Amino acid sequence: MKFLKTLDAKFFHTEIPYKPMGKYAHFLTVRVTESYPLFQTDGELNKARVRAGVEDKNTISRLSMFKRKQSTPERLVGRELLRTYGFVKPEECEYNVEFGMDNPDCIIYGFAIGDSGSEKSKVVVDTAFSITAFDESHETFTLNAPFENGTMASKGEKGSKPGEVTSRINQQDHIRPQVFFPSIVTLKDPTEASFLYVFNNILRTRHYGAQTTRTGRVRNELIGVIFADGEIVSNLRWTQAIYDQMKTAGTLKAPDPLDEDDVAQAAKTAIQTLMNEEFIVHSDFIGEDFQPLITEVKTLTASEAGVRSILNQADQEAKAYADKHIGKKKAASARS
Question: What single string gives the DSSP state of each residue in 231-290?
């Protein structure tokens, strides 16, 4: 079943291949914080000391958004949709507990169940870095909670007695709103249905990082898609090139947040420049060339019938793949 009129069928496989076939779809995403998310390990925000730009050789600290912080929320959104539309029952496939092994989530994003089997993810996401420096991109909050008598206690305390002032204060670093993380999400050997499945997951995901029920609001702005016969530049190099573009244009306005339009323009210019330096075959849909595709995808995924048709096709392809390849692996494992 063909969904997209704006793309040539040559970019997609007609079925999910078992071995790598050298087709790549790269989603060019700029993740924008819209609240105070936490991307942390061991209680501290993740950060890295790196060069500011490709041309600017000064060293700065940048916030880091590890790959799991990106891919896990997106696949969970896809799993939720599969359950909503009846393609996966809750008892059939439980994330990180007992995978169903034959649905779009398991086949596209991969799974590992000890001796029972595994499937390598076809979605590749690497660590993303903030455009702005760490010092400009975070702030420290005091964590406390009110009680009915009007007293305040820091998080984790039982409260203070009447008239007693507590000196125990808990603090936590949070990422500020309007911090930008350029991120390239790569889908290997896409079918049209798997391409739309991943595309839709990126568009729909709204929360990333710790405490996703209370904070962590992030919006994904896609600025383009690149089809290629190999992998393209890293998130870090793209981020550094964006920094150079914005520095040259005078749109780095520390300590004020970056303007979203300035970031989008710099991101498009930077990736086009970087792609001109690549030694692979690629077809770029960026800027105006991307608009017909994003419009068509949003129209398709905005209706129940459209979403159901995508999930149905993706589910059929996943089950066909599982029957043909995962079934063989399970049988071989049982014999051994």
Answer: ----HHHHHHHHHHHHHHHT---TTSPPPHHHHHHHHHHHHHHHHTT--S-EEEEEGGGT
Residue 96, both tokens: 């990180």
**In 3D, which of 172, 182, 199 has the Cα closest to residue 294?**
199
Distance CA 255, CA 239 (A): 19
Q: Which residues pair with 31 in a beta bridge?
A: 181, 220
pTM above 0.85, yes or no: yes
Contacts for 4 with CB less than 8 Å, ≥ 6 apart: 192, 196, 293, 296, 297, 300
pLDDT, tens only, 196-228: 999 999 999 999 987 544 678 999 999 999 999
Compute the distance between CA of residue 166 and CA of residue 316 in angstroms, rounded to an integer. Answer: 60
Q: Token pair for residue 85?
A: 């539309």
Q: Which of 269, 332, 321 is nearest to 19 (CA)?
A: 321
